Amino acid sequence: MELIGKPISQRQHLVLHGVKKVLYRDSIRRFIEKIAPKVSRIKLQVRSVKETMFYSIGGKKVKKFVFA
Amino acid sequence: MGRFAVLAESFEHLSYPLGRLEPSDKGVFSEHRENFIFHRMSGELDAEMSISASDALSLHAALPVGFVFEGDSGFFLVCKTVGRQPSKSMPAAEKSEFCRAVVERLSALHSEGLGCGGLSPDAVEFSGKEARLLNPAKIFAANESDSLFFEAVSTLRSLVSKGFANKKELPALASLYLSTPACREAVFSYMREKKLSGLPHLVLSEAARKYAAYF
């Protein structure tokens, strides 16, 4: 099994045969262990959140997520 | 600039799908058994205005919960939908309910001094009883230069042309639209301007039937 991509944040997007799943780091490990016998290649597609900030729009609290 | 998402309180979990989805106009996605739709915005200001007015417009339109910016595509408003989009394959009784819901929504908007450019069946969601606009950014504060009569005619016309109502149902739908004073005044002022006489609901339904001749 070949693992492409290095987990760099708490949240990773796992692409497996075109089906995307959003998993936490521990879940990714468990998921890989579970499917390892069935597939030969797993691509980890990383789009982590690099910055967050809070502010308000018209009195409504919002959170801004800047993706890497 | 790359990609960012701005999300209202209690919708922060949408950062997960918004981090990976490619937004497109009228694109839909689901998360936690809730359905959401993207609407293309001309800029950040328009998207922010929809979010700040969400409380006032939530009765009439899908709830805006945030927006996403994608470097190549621009800004997209993200709205939570609770109904489904109508289809021509709906049973006749449901089509009739849908048409009434659309006309009632238009009447309610006009009664509050709001315009929307007319309601097309493609632009609303139907929950079984109520019809709401899919895109809250289409709603604007109407002024004297906006023709509410035109919006009513255009709505009735699109219900017929898209196959949700037949021409015989137009007078009844027109009567339903005229159930509020603001809507009656919109039709009466058009009749005064054009020096038309007759029953207002018949004038409205006739205008919808001969749409091209009137506008």
Which structural class do the helices and strands of chain A define? alpha+beta
Shape of chain A: elongated
Radius of gyration of chain B: 19 Å
Distance between the termini of chain A: 27 Å
Number of strands of chain A: 6
Give the key terms.
heterodimer; A: 68 residues; alpha+beta; four-stranded mixed sheet; two-stranded antiparallel sheet; 1 helix; elongated; B: 215 residues; Transferase(Phosphotransferase), domain 1; five-stranded antiparallel sheet; two-stranded antiparallel ribbon; 9 helices
Would you summarize the structure shown here?
With 68 residues, chain A is of the alpha+beta class. Chain A is built from one helix and six strands; from the N terminus they run βββαβββ.
Give the helices and strands, then pairings.
The complex is a heterodimer of chains A (68) and B (215).
Chain A: E1 2-4, E2 11-16, E3 19-24, H1 25-35, E4 41-45, E5 49-57, E6 60-67
Parallel strand pairs in A: 1-4
Antiparallel strand pairs in A: 2-3, 2-4, 5-6
Chain B: E1 3-8, H1 15-18, E2 28-31, E3 34-41, H2 44-52, H3 54-57, E4 63-70, E5 74-81, H4 92-111, E6 114-115, E7 124-126, E8 131-133, E9 140-141, H5 148-161, H6 170-177, H7 181-194, H8 200-209, H9 211-214
Antiparallel strand pairs in B: 1-4, 2-3, 3-5, 4-5, 6-9, 7-8
Helix pairs in contact in B: 4-5, 4-6, 5-8, 6-8, 7-8
